[in-house]
Amino acid sequence: MVMFWVLLLAISILLYVLLDGADLGIGMLFGLARGEEKRRVMLSAVAPIWDGNETWLVVAGVILWGAFPVVYATLLSAFYLPLFLMLAGLILRGVAFEFRNKTQRMRWIWDLSFAGGSLVASFMQGTTVGALVEGLQVTNGQYSGGDFGWLTPFAALCGIGLCLGYALLGACWLVKKCDAEVRDRAHRQIRILAVSVLVFLVVVFVYALADHLPILHRWIDRPYLFVFPAIGAVAAIVLALSILRHNDHWPFYMVAVIFVSAFGTLALSFWPYLIPFVITIDEAAAPHSSLTFMFWGGAVVFPLMLLYTVISYSVFRGKVGTTAGHH
Amino acid sequence: MDMTALLLSRIQFAFTITFHIIFPSFTIGLAAWLTVLEALRLATGRPVYRVVFDFWLKIFGVAFGLGVVSGIVMAFQFGTNWSVLSKMSGPIQGPLLMYETFTAFMLEATFFGVLIFGRSRVPPWFYLFSTAMVGLGTTFSAFWIMVNNSWMQVPSGFVMENGAFVPNDWTKIIFNSVVWSRFPHMLLASYLTGAFCVAATGAWYVLRKEYHAESRIMLRMGLGLAAVLMPIQLFFGHLNGGYVNTYQPSKMAAIEGRWNDEKPAGEVLFAWPDVESRRNLFAITLPPPFGSLIDSDSLTAGETGLNSIPPENWPPVVIPFFSFRIMVGCGMVMLGLAWLGTYLSFKRRLERNRLVLWMTFLSFLLPFIAILTGWFTAEVGRQPWVVYGVLRTADAMTPFLSTREATISLLIFCAIYAFIFAFGTFYIYRLIRTGPAGKLFETPRLAVPSRPMSLANAGPIHEPSHVGAGE
Fold first, then answer.
1. How far apart are the first and last CA of chain B?
2. Whole-number Å distance between alpha carbons of A146 and A116
């Protein structure tokens, strides 16, 4: 039963990262784009799906609370400020989708809140993961890192890294969904972003080596973990080839594979810990009576939610076209 | 323990949840109203029902979107500021909120898609079914939230193990009398909110001499529904008083402004409770046994006063005392207005009575005030407990939360909510001011179920240059 909920939690987080990651990435690239025409096309590539994507964050949150209450309580309170900044970013990003169309004069405010909200939310998510990898400062089962304990150089580096990664995912989505100018521009951005992400991964690796992060011992103990980076490397090569051949669809899927392999690497490196080296999955699990009560939600409703996500993406498949949004 | 951080956390939770509840209570009522309209259209075939339906569907979209946005915060706030509570009660509150999210996601999102896309693609009976399912989804949401909150009011069905509330009887947690008097009370409050907003909009159009057919439907149905529901709502309100009296004597004593044990008890109608000297100033009081009659349905029952409860277990007396009276006052005005308006409507004199029309127009605020003050009564009255009788609010807070952190987060929310609330309500106002406009609703090409606010873009009021995703 515990494994079942670990699986659902992992699926929810992974779906959130892949789906809303692309939306947030486009939000950041939106800030770089000039001209109303291009911005409209970029927006229409994600407008119908972003809200459903964001819901996976809430789904992950409530699964975490129901199935692993100790982790929910510990993580959310430890990451107090980054979490609220992330929520603020997500709210501003969300309402901007709707409100920028209601006004001409004030549109710049909503454009700013759209790009800025996406940037802040992405950076905070990356920083949080970075701080978690580095190790949460815990004394007697309680977080003791202080208000800004999460803001270390390594965590900030991971924040920048995730921004680059999301932007890459977003650019690939634009190439997949758009035509003409927007696609060509995204195509150029993919090259820069892909190289940046690669550089980032190398820097993080060197940093981890130099800093003797505990995660490294895991790698030495568990050589099979290198399967994931290997898959990621293959995906990176296919990505490079598909960009050179100007394929519109492969880049997105390859970047998604890279994200999945990064996620898998992290998750298995920490196994069986849910909060690295502090709380294991079994220690964190809610009592049996809670998990069995939740079972029907997970076994019946969760698959329906997955199905629903697939359907809404298939309704929206294909290019949005340059004329999208014109009357 | 940082007492300032505690106060700020409480203010933040109160602020964000007050902001949030405005939208769900509106949309639950509207979803039910949309179902009724669609059923009437199928039954009578009158096109005017379609026009009114399409008009309110747009407003539903905006309010629903704001509810979703502000609801996300609620899912995280238990863990950030109240980590001790969420760790202890996670085994019970976590699964309940998980079901809330899951059922809402499934029903609302799925069938909302049919509401937007489906007019021409599904048979009429299925469109009606989908409307009802969206309504059912919002109702389920409210249900799980009420189960969750009722457990915090009257905890049951659990044992304490290793400092956590471990559920041992879910039937008791979900199917207890407290849930089943509070959930209908909230549901009826939402229906009444919908009814008065609809009636107020109708009254406004009648006063402006616009949308003749539409405005009459809104006015008559809104007031008529309220006239029927108000007495039922008072009945459930009375049942709620019963559970408070049984399980939460300190809240009851504060609501009633009752200092001493009385048997039989009198009833304080109005007063200024002076907590320092433990007495009521300027009190207008009904003699015994009115208090016993109201609180215990008995002529002789004894009622507990605050003096026989240790002061450290008192709620802040003044807030529940007044918020309860404001709620009941709003309820009485709504009852009078609904009955008067319906009577005049039967006599076919309502549309000429400008005073009643104006009162109806302004009445849209009453249900919102009643809901907020009702929740203040329930939640502030529960203090100093977060889980009544078991866990104190002060002990439930994240122990290492600093004043600095709490200040920053509260400022962020005040700024952002003020910002989006101003724009959101202005936008709903503009939709209502523009009116149904007779133009049949067109499906926005790129609008989708998960993005209800895009619907509102379909209106005729936008500058033609606007674009975006859901034109």
1. 52
2. 26
Report the pLDDT averaged over residues A254-259: 93
Q: How do the domains of chain B map onto residue ranges?
A: 3-225+395-458
> Does pLDDT of A286 surpass 80?
yes
Tell me which residue has tokens 């011992």: A217
pLDDT of residue A324: 41
Q: How far, in Å, CA of A51 to CA of A64, rounded?
A: 20
Closest alpha carbon to A11 in A60, A50, A51, A49: A60
Complete domains list, chain A, with CATH? 2-315 (1.20.1630)
Instruction: Answer yes or no: is pLDDT of B142 > 70.
Output: yes
pLDDT tens digit sequence for B397-409:
998 899 999 999 9
Taking an 8 Å cut-off on Cβ atoms, the answer to whether A69 and B87 are in contact is yes
Q: Write down the ipTM of this complex.
A: 0.89
Q: Is the per-residue pLDDT at B470 higher than 70?
A: no
Across A309-318, B97-106, B155-164, B317-326, least confident range? A309-318
| Beta-sheet strands, E only, within B313-388 | 385-387
Q: Please enumerate in sequence order all residues whose Cβ is within 8 A of that of A73, keeping only pairs 6 or more positions apart, or say none.
A: B79, B83, B84, B86, B87, B90
A73 → closest Cβ in B65, B86, B454: B86
Cα-only R_g, chain A: 20
Mutate to test the interface with A, among B16, B69, B429 (most CBs of A within 10 A): B69
Tell me, yes or no, if A40 comes closer than 8 A to chain B by beta carbon. Answer: yes
> Could you write out the DSSP letters of every residue in B293-316?
HHHHS-SS--B--GGGS-GGG---
pLDDT in the model for residue B455 = 54
Contact A43 B102 (CB under 8 A): no
HEC letters along B115-162: HHHHHHCCCHHHHHHHHHHHHHHHHHHHHHHHHHHHHHHCCCCEEEEC
- What residue of B is the nearest CA neighbor of A38? B468
What's the one-letter identity of residue A85?
A: L
- Any idea which of A96-110, A172-186, B65-79 has the lowest mean pLDDT? A96-110
SS3 A254: helix
